[in-house]
């Protein structure tokens, strides 16, 4: 299972089995976007984490790879996110996810930064590569597409 955490929306992609180095990628068995309409970020985190925990209990993944936050010193938006507190709120959510995984799955959560799976590729580039892998009609919601892209990178086919 791969997870793109976000307080505004979390994406999940689950493959029953991933084989690294496949010549042809296969679609995830399950995808899910988790959102919350709670008005306060702490309540959003609680609601999103509860839903995420339910997904873990339903799917029972052996491995969960979660995108971890990186601070890009050369990026104005990254620095603004850190100075405004958004990066720390997202890190808090990611920690909640890690705890949920460690409590419910046989293996500890694996954290990977964006540079570890997509390098400098933009969201648009990830979406284009997903369409190239699965066909032009395949489209995933915003955060889900990053979770799918992460899974493709792990398979070695992004």
Feature tags:
158 residues, globular, 5-stranded mixed β-sheet, 5 strands, 6 helices, alpha/beta, Nucleotidyltransferase, domain 5
Q: Would you kindly provide a written description of the structure presented here, covering whatever features stand out?
A:
With 158 residues, the protein is α/β, with parallel strands linked by helices. It has a single domain (2-155), classed as Ribonuclease H-like superfamily/Ribonuclease H (Nucleotidyltransferase, domain 5, 2-Layer Sandwich), CATH 3.30.420. The protein has six helices and five strands. It has helices at 41-59, 76-84, 86-104, 114-117, 123-134, 142-155; strands at 2-4, 10-14, 30-34, 65-67, 110-112. It is globular and about 40 Å long.
């Amino acid at each position: 299972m791969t997870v793109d955490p976000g307080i505004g929306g979390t994406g999940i992609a689950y493959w029953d089995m991933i084989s690294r180095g496949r010549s042809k990628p296969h679609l995830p068995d399950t995808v899910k976007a988790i959102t919350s309409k709670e008005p306060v970020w702490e309540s959003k985190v609680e609601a999103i984490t509860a839903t995420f925990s339910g997904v873990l209990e339903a799917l029972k993944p052996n491995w969960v790879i979660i995108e971890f936050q990186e601070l890009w010193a050369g990026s104005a938006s990254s620095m603004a996110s850190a100075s405004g507190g958004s990066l720390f709120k997202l890190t808090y959510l990611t920690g909640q996810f890690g705890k949920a995984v460690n409590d419910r799955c046989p293996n500890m959560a694996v954290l990977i930064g964006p540079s570890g799976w997509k390098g400098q590729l933009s969201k648009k580039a990830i979406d284009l590569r997903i369409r190239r892998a699965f066909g032009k009609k395949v489209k995933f919601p915003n955060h889900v597409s990053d979770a799918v892209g992460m899974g493709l990178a792990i398979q070695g086919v992004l």
